[in-house]
Design goal:
This protein is α+β, with helices and mostly antiparallel strands. Helices cover 36% and strands 18% of the residues.
Length: 504
């Protein structure tokens, strides 16, 4: 993205962050340039601006003396595999700007594809960096292992030595078998022995490398396993559920692995118990305000199921950083799983594709009708939010964990402390992604004075509900957007992206 001089001047006055780095550079690339390149490529991309130095906690425009030489060195070095293993630089992502007679170089480093990571420097994978807050940090061994694991879509296909059917919970197997009998009415399923059944669904597989010995898969262990058996292979395995509604300071209900009330909380049992609690958490009937469309109870069920199953099937079970956690709040749900999303948020909600980590667990959920291999579940989540005018789902994804937050409320209903005039003004932006001036808002809301409108606009902007576009006489306002609001209104917001990209 090519920023204009005004935008760059404003940007230089800000602080470095997870996607922005300033570096002094007179005649050559700074020594730490490539560690920042690696960090941005392995995290979420970002801008490196050469020709800016920090002095007395302020950014000073120092300029670049020989920008042509630096550009040449930049492209030459990026092609040198002994310096950096992946070349992500494109000519369109590098711009030389003249600001007040001084040249700077603006370089955009895109995030590398999941199968390109880790991006490392100096011909050593140990020189892999990640961007955290406003600094570059060498990846730990666990972080490096996570980056490498992300290449695989069959993490749970590992064939386990020393495990037998005795390591599985028999009740889980029976319950799953009953589900499939009802779904497929297949007489063969009824007559199968437990082991034959487990082989037929992929929980046990033959090891063709070792005399076709029958072995339990990691996915089979996770799905059907006894708790202690799971822990013997995955010591960090943990699943949890909290109902945090009401006045209780902690929770009103909890389901947790290791709790004696849930002795064998494998993935299947966890899903069965928690899914019922999610369904019962939705009020019947569940309606919006009288002047709005009726919420569909069935649709809400679908959204919750898709979010829940998505959390389970995409988890990195080999990670030691976090657990599978479901939380019910008022009026939202939080789904947390270890591991980063393997596709961008935009692709997750727009495209009918799914890149999985756990092919066996995916198939086990698909057989029981709880997962769609085509990857349309994410679209269903977004569509429920749009149709019911909920606040858009929120996603945070890092190497350690992915968090999906589903709202069952209108945006204005979950914003506390707004006055009547602030709500009235905010609602003007609600139907369309449009720009409004204070004058236009005053015309639409004549019960308020121009000064009242102006003061309220400033308060809404300070609460990050709207953003300012332009200055003084030409100033207008538009609604703050997250990535999913962008998706929903992509045609309308294209022209204002530059103004909003650094607001959050």
């Amino acid at each position: 993205m090519d920023l204009n001089n005004k935008e760059l001047k404003e940007l230089i006055q800000t602080h470095e962050n997870v996607q922005l780095e300033f570096k002094e550079s007179k005649n050559s690339l700074p020594n730490d340039f490539w560690s920042t390149y690696s960090a941005f490529a392995n995290t979420s991309g970002g801008y490196i601006i050469l020709g800016v130095k920090e002095e007395n906690n302020q950014n000073i425009l120092s300029g670049v003396a020989n920008y042509e030489k630096i550009k040449t060195d930049l492209f030459t070095t990026a092609c040198n595999s002994t310096k950096v293993n992946i070349d992500l630089l494109l000519p369109d992502n590098i711009h030389v700007k003249n600001i007040d007679g001084k040249y700077i170089i603006v370089i955009y480093i895109p995030e590398a594809a999941i199968n390109q990571k880790p991006v490392y420097i100096n011909n050593s994978i140990s020189n892999t960096y990640l961007r955290k807050h406003d600094g570059d940090h060498r990846a730990s061994q666990e972080e490096l292992s996570a980056l490498i694991r992300n290449h695989s879509d069959t993490l749970d296909s590992e064939l386990l030595d020393g495990y037998t059917i005795d390591d599985l919970d028999p009740e889980s197997i029976v319950k799953y078998q009953v589900l499939l009998r009802k779904r497929y009415t297949n007489q063969e399923i009824i007559s199968m022995s437990p082991m034959d059944f487990l082989i037929s669904i992929g929980a046990f597989q033959y090891d063709h490398q070792h005399e076709r010995k029958l072995k339990l898969t990691l996915g089979g262990l996770l799905f059907f396993g006894k708790y202690n058996a799971i822990l013997s292979r995955l010591p960090h395995y943990h699943v949890d559920f909290f109902d945090k509604r009401g006045t209780n300071e902690r929770w009103s209900d909890r389901v947790s692995s290791g709790d004696l009330d849930f002795p064998d909380l494998n993935i299947f049992n966890y899903y069965s118990i928690v899914y019922e609690k999610l369904l019962s958490s939705i009020e019947r009937p569940f309606n919006l305000k009288e002047d709005m469309v009726r919420k569909s109870y069935a649709e809400l069920n679908i959204a919750l199921q898709e979010a829940f199953v998505n959390m389970i099937i995409h988890a990195d079970y080999l990670s030691n950083t976090t657990a599978l956690i479901v939380e019910i709040h008022e009026p939202y749900y939080i789904f947390t799983n270890p591991g980063i999303m393997k596709i961008p948020v935009e692709s997750f909600f727009l495209e009918s594709r799914s890149v999985t980590r756990n092919s066996i667990i995916v198939n086990l959920f698909r057989r029981m009708g709880a997962s769609d291999r085509a990857g349309t579940g994410s679209k269903k989540i977004l569509n429920v939010a749009v149709k019911n005018q909920f606040k858009m789902p929120e996603i945070e994804s890092s190497l350690e964990k992915t968090i999906l937050k589903l709202w069952l409320a209108h945006p204005i209903d979950v914003t506390l402390g707004l006055s009547k005039i602030e709500k009235d003004i905010y609602n003007l932006f609600d139907n369309d992604m449009i720009n409004l001036t204070a004058k236009k808002i005053n015309e639409l809301l004549p019960i308020y004075s121009y000064s009242q409108v102006n003061r309220s606009l400033k308060k809404l902007a300070s609460k990050n509900l709207i953003i300012k576009l332009g200055a003084n006489r030409n100033r207008s306002y538009t609604k703050c957007i997250n990535k999913l609001e962008f998706i929903k209104n992509i045609d309308q917001v294209t022209k204002i992206i530059k103004s909003s990209i650094y607001t959050k």
